[in-house]
Write the structure tokens for this entry.
Amino acid sequence: MNKIAFFLSIFILTTVIGLYVGHNLIPQVGETSPITGKPVEDVSNSLFFFAYIITVTAVLLVVMKFYKGRLLFKVLEVLIIFVGSQIVYSFLLYDLLAALGLLETVTQMQYEISIILLAVLTVVVRFIRRRFLVLNVTLSVAIAGAGGLLGATLGFAPSLLLVIGLSVYDVVSVFGTKHMLKLADQSRLRDLPVMFETPSKGIKTGPRKGVRPSEDILGLGTGDIAIPLVFFVSVLRDFGWMNVLGAMIGAMFGLGLTIYYVTHVKRIALPALPPIIGFSLLGFAVSWVLGM
């Protein structure tokens, strides 16, 4: 499997799971965001999440500068995988039990304990089997849960503003301040789950041990998949599945183009979000004009 196919596979896996989560959450969320307490169509929601993302990034950079240990980042890794996967399993287990006709035989407590156990198992497998395949798939599940949840709390307008704002920020953080490059390098050294990764010389599923951070690994930030997912779910909320498909196809083209450039034209760190979001918006616009 080449690198373009690899990252597109991760993108599709995360997006499909995230859309499944978002589809289930949209009716539960309704018209008021449970996070901000404001209507989902209120554009100030985008400012809240933008500020939140910038703040978290700044805090991470400060912690990485002054804290040289690894324990804190291991705890953070556990929390990210545990919480994100729990969101996915809560819907997956419910639908599985319903399909098997076993929903009535399970108590609420048994259901909730089962979700927790599945999330714990995901964390355990991730820590026991530190292989590229396991690391990427478990991270994909967690990001799908978080992205699906965030997308369900945003209407189309605030989501549009958010993804455009973050695309501009991506350019500044890579080419301007370059702090995103520092975050990526440090996350690799300390195993912080903010990147989908594969060996740059070929797709492997073996251990990640001994791989040199900047030379041998090709990475894609989790935000480069999570942020488009947020937009897809908001499109699903206000439009429909065919418009989601148009946006998704556009995003995949933008991602493929970016990976092709860094692997075949020039090996350089690029902000992937602008082309992904740009072509995603183009794909959405085409599907909307065609009345899909």
